[in-house]
Amino acid sequence: MENSSNTLLVKVAAVVVISITAALVMHVQDPSDTVLGVGYPELWRRTGLAGAPARAATCILAGVLLLTLGWLYRLLFAPLELLRSPDEVGYIAEDGRTRAQAANDVRRRRKTGELPPVYPNGWYRVLDSHMLERGDVKNVTVLGEQVAVFRGLEGKAYVVDAYCPHLGANLAVGGRVVGDCIECPFHGWQFRGEDGKCIRIPYAEKVPEFAKVRCWPSCEINGQILVWFHCDGDEPGWRVPEQREITQGVWVYRGRTEHFINAHIEEIPENAADIAHLAHLHTPGIVSGVDLRYTNSKTWEFVRHDWKVEWKPETEPNKHCSQMLVKHALTVFGRRWPLLDLDVVARQVGPGIVFLLFDHSFLGHGVIMHCVTPVEPLLQCVSHTIFYQSSIPPLVPKFILRAECIQFERDVMIWNNKKYISKPMLVKEDSAIQKHRRWFSQFYSENSPRLRYQHDTMDF
């Protein structure tokens, strides 16, 4: 509540400043007018800025002031939202090609290797809660399926198959919310969000018992809407833990990033156990950027990140969880800056959700929720949503999220171009990778869907 009051106060102050500035601009008629009781300088008359030119100059200055105020507000108070397109990160466009052309070439020619099943059993994020208001309907692709995500007028979120079983219209494209139901835009059939059952057909005397749409098991927790997937239709085997600081408003939303990665889902969490890659890929400072051709440039080698990492699976009753313990240190010109030492506990829950918990004596406390959701067999939507201590200036968590984004995009360039190797050539120091693969295998079942190629077109 305190943070909401502070945010409201800032917004009210911004509106007042903008209103006063606009009023002053509207009342400027010539240099004999006054601004806040002070006459315009005599220099304006001598240089010919009296009259219309003066008003034009004042308008330009006021416009610059408003733009500056807007930029400062976004920098200091607004959440950071950085949404990358599938072609924007991880590809090298050369020889006059666009990034989209380079990405398509890589996708078409890259060898995939002998892949595990493409959709593990578990919970997956579909949307952040604030993206779905009461009465809203969203069309989302998840696990190769089109789903309609909607929020009933009483506030509960539901996830159902997008296609109406009547004649196949997409419920999320033109459909509307009626109470706790979604209405088909084609013929007005209404399906209940709780169980998918059709409860009304406007032109029919009776609704058939078999008239229903598939309803996905879902929950809303930690500011996110999640769905449960199991290839055999089994009920959820575990719950996603609640982060009470988020529920109680102690930690507030400070932004999110979103990336699309062309790789198998298992490649992404496996990074937690690949300890050796941190020293090679993530030691260069974030100032050296994300293009791996230049991250080791001598220009920026005075800034270095040091990492100490340990990965381990948890035991019953939390065998679906694992932890990566990270100790980060920053050195500048060879000198360590203890103020920026950071301890992070990355707790993975199932195949698609990771809690990155930050604990710092000066920078405060918070969490980045790292979520991986399969869109298609080899296309993953990865989001990082940060909630942070409300008493800490928003600039701090926004910087942390931006730094995390830079380091993450270095991995994206690897993932988008690599081949999955089912039997990798490992050394003793890579033992955690095999342990991680054994741990991750629990999310596959005998009937878990696998990628099947058509040998004539290579399309899946």
From TrEMBL:
Its cofactor is Fe cation. SUPFAM superfamilies: Bet v1-like, ISP domain. Keywords: 2Fe-2S, Iron, Iron-sulfur, Membrane, Metal-binding, Oxidoreductase, Transmembrane, Transmembrane helix. It is found in: Membrane. Its main location: membrane. Residues 123-227 form the Rieske domain. GO terms for cellular component: cytoplasm; membrane. Its EC number is 1.14.19.21. Pathway: Hormone biosynthesis; Steroid hormone biosynthesis; dafachronic acid biosynthesis. It is an enzyme of class 1 (oxidoreductase). It catalyses: cholesterol + NADH + O2 + H(+) = 7-dehydrocholesterol + NAD(+) + 2 H2O; cholesterol + NADPH + O2 + H(+) = 7-dehydrocholesterol + NADP(+) + 2 H2O. InterPro entries: Cholesterol_7-desaturase (IPR050584), KshA-like_C (IPR045605), Rieske_2Fe-2S (IPR017941), Rieske_2Fe-2S_sf (IPR036922). Gene3D superfamilies: Naphthalene 1,2-dioxygenase Alpha Subunit, Chain A, domain 1, Rieske [2Fe-2S] iron-sulphur domain. GO terms for biological process: cholesterol metabolic process. One of its GO terms (molecular function) is cholesterol 7-desaturase [NAD(P)H] activity. The chain crosses the membrane at residues 7-28, 48-73. Belongs to the cholesterol 7-desaturase family. This is cholesterol 7-desaturase. It comes from Clupea harengus. The gene is zgc:92275.
